[in-house]
Amino acid sequence: MIQFSNVTQDIKLLKTPFCGSWAGVTLVKGEQNVLIDSGANSETVDECIVPALKAEGLEPDDLDLIVCTHSHGDHVGGHYRLHQISKAKIAAFADYADKIRDPLKYNKLIRAPFPKYSPPPSSSLKGVEPDVFLRDGDVVGGRLRMVHTPGHDTDCVTWYDEITKTAITGDSLQANGTELQGTGLYIDVEMYRNSVKRLLDMDIENVIAGHDYLPVGSVALGKEKARWYLESCLTLIDTYQILVDEFLRRGIRNLPDVALELIKHVGGRIPQFIFLPMFTTRAHIASSKVK
Ligand SMILES: [Fe+2]
After folding, report:
1. 58-78 confidence digits (pLDDT tens)
2. Tens-digit pLDDT profile for residues 79-125
């Protein structure tokens, strides 16, 4: 059985199965129990999250609030099932509440620009009607501040724990991507850069990411390591831009070809579907000064 592991005071990470790797579900245990993200689907809830909660002495009804880091399927796929079996309230980023109501619609939308290079949508995704609507800066559970950190997608947030100064970043920090992706994934370079800078300006002592990101991993404990994690993400943005500029100069201009070249150069494994690196590559072509 997969169990929550302690990261910092009352903050626990559960690595739920996702495409042969894992997606993080974080529990902040206290006067109010808050679950951040819900895994990829209902089975994850029944087979992993509920047993792991029980091992922590919690029933689904002991959860007070379910929030997410963003509305991609591997982070909100368990919301529907949790809503069925728990009295916990479901929170949504107010500006993007529709994504919680209908995550399948957005799962299809992210595949729409590059249909030839995208896997089929996760058709089992079901939405829920949120109970709580949050904005940038709102605090939940008496300790978790929502910080808008778009770039990977427009609705990405970081949950900043004011007690332990831990940033639960979901997919807001991409570094060099996961081993499934090929490269980091962001849809807009400046949006992403500004989010990494916003986090660098905060007093962060620990980072918990939603996946294992290359080469920085998923958890950074201590101020120095947290800073290194964030700075690595910032440096990789410049690395990607320099590489894409170089490919363009060499006359490689067809988007899938540029994306493949980028994956090869940053050391990623070429995934079966390259739609995610294509988003990042498209963003870097758009910000390139090479015309
Ligand atoms: Fe993810």
Report:
1. 999 999 999 999 999 999 999
2. 999 999 999 999 999 999 999 999 999 999 999 999 999 999 999 99
CA 156–ligand 1 middle distance (angstroms): 10
Q: Please say whether the beta carbons of 82 and 88 come within 8 A.
A: yes
* Cis peptide bond N-terminal to 215, omega within 30: yes
Q: Fill in the amino acid letter for 194.
A: N
> How close is the Cα of 254 to the center of ligand 1, in Å?
27
Give me the residue spans of the domains in the chain. Answer: 5-232
Q: How many helices (H) and strands (E) would you count in the chain?
A: 10, 13
Distance CA 27, CA 182 (A): 29
Q: Note the pLDDT tens digit of each residue in 134-178.
A: 999 999 999 999 999 999 999 999 999 999 999 999 999 999 999
For the cut 90, the answer to whether the pLDDT of residue 291 exceeds it is no
> Regarding the domain with residue range 5-232, which homologous superfamily does it belong to in the CATH classification?
Ribonuclease Z/Hydroxyacylglutathione hydrolase-like (3.60.15.10)
Distance 251 CA to ligand 1 centre (A): 33
- CA 72 – ligand 1 centroid, Å: 6
Q: How far apart are CA 8 and CA 164, in angstroms?
A: 7
Cα–ligand 1 centroid distance for 74 (angstroms): 5
CB of 133 closer than 8 Å to CB of 97: yes
Sign of CA dihedral 52, 56, 59, 60: negative
Buried b (16+ CB within 10 A) or exposed e, 63-82: bbbbbbbbbbbbbbbbbbbb
CA of 77 to the centre of ligand 1 (A): 11
Distance 10 CA to ligand 1 centre (A): 23
Is residue 211 predicted with pLDDT exceeding 90? Answer: yes
Q: What is the C-alpha to C-alpha distance for residues 225 and 197, in angstroms, rounded to an integer?
A: 16
pTM of this prediction exceeds 0.90: yes
Residue 37 in contact with residue 76, Cβ under 8 Å?
A: yes
